[in-house]
Amino acid sequence: MTKKAVIVFSGGQDSTTCLIQALPHYDEIHCITFDYGQRHRAEIEVAQTLSKKLGVKVHKVLDVSLLNELAISSLTRDNIPVPTTSRSGEKLPSTFVPGRNILFLTLASIYAYQVQAQTVITGVCETDFSGYPDCRDQFVRALNVAVESGMDYPLKFETPLMWLNKAQIWALADSHNQLELVRDHTLTCYNGLMGSGCGECDACRLRAKGLRAYLDNRAETMESLSKQMILD
């Protein structure tokens, strides 16, 4: 049986690292990118360029602009500024797009059903993240059960980065000799700037902090990554 996977692909550091890590393990990979009227729309073109560069033959861009109508966030509304400081307390940051991963993973699952893929891969992580509830392991597992039940189709959600910190995610890209590609050609910035980004938004801060930590402790981080991957 052909081993197939669908990757929720934004062209950012995390989803690109997931794609790089998955390529040797699947016979066929489908990337799916969602156009939801996001503020940093440049990510769609970046995702298309990266998937071609990495040899992905099927890349679907899906229009889900209805999310923009429903979900109020600084990533869907130009009049809401992107915060330049990390959140404090229990309040979610304005960059949280309610329902985004519920929608993305559900639609990716429907697509996986149609192409008979056994796996949906997403780069969500709850170790170094902005506190989004739909990036947590508990959520992903619960939705996986619901999707399998609702479609009566065996499908596994894979979250290769779930328990990795940002330094380890950089190490994972480097272990595949793709550190420069991820560093220079992905788009993580909430303000839509490729590479190192604006340097001020929460996404850029987390990314830069992780890269510094990795470059300062390469051997130690690689070792911790290896142990974590064995545990998984």
Question: What can you tell me about this protein's structure?
Answer:
This protein has 232 residues and is an alpha/beta fold. Helices cover 45% and strands 11% of the residues. It has nine helices and five strands. It has helices spanning 13-22, 42-53, 66-70, 100-115, 137-151, 166-175, 179-185, 202-216, 218-231, and strands spanning 4-8, 28-35, 58-63, 119-121, 156-158. The two termini are 24 Å apart. The model has no long low-confidence stretch (mean pLDDT 93).
Fill in the keyword field for this structure:
5 strands; globular
Strand order in space, largest sheet? 3-2-1-4-5
Could you say which overall geometry the principal axes of the C-alpha atoms support? globular
**Topology pattern, helix = H, strand = E:** EHEHEHHEHEHHHH
Measured by DSSP, the beta-strand proportion falls in 5-15%
- Distance between termini? 24 Å
Helix and strand arrangement:
Elements: E1 4-8, H1 13-22, E2 28-35, H2 42-53, E3 58-63, H3 66-70, H4 100-115, E4 119-121, H5 137-151, E5 156-158, H6 166-175, H7 179-185, H8 202-216, H9 218-231
Parallel strand pairs: 1-2, 1-4, 2-3, 4-5
Helix pairs in contact: 1-6, 6-8, 6-9
Provide a concise account of the structure shown.
The protein is 45% helix and 11% strand. With 232 residues, it is of the alpha/beta class.
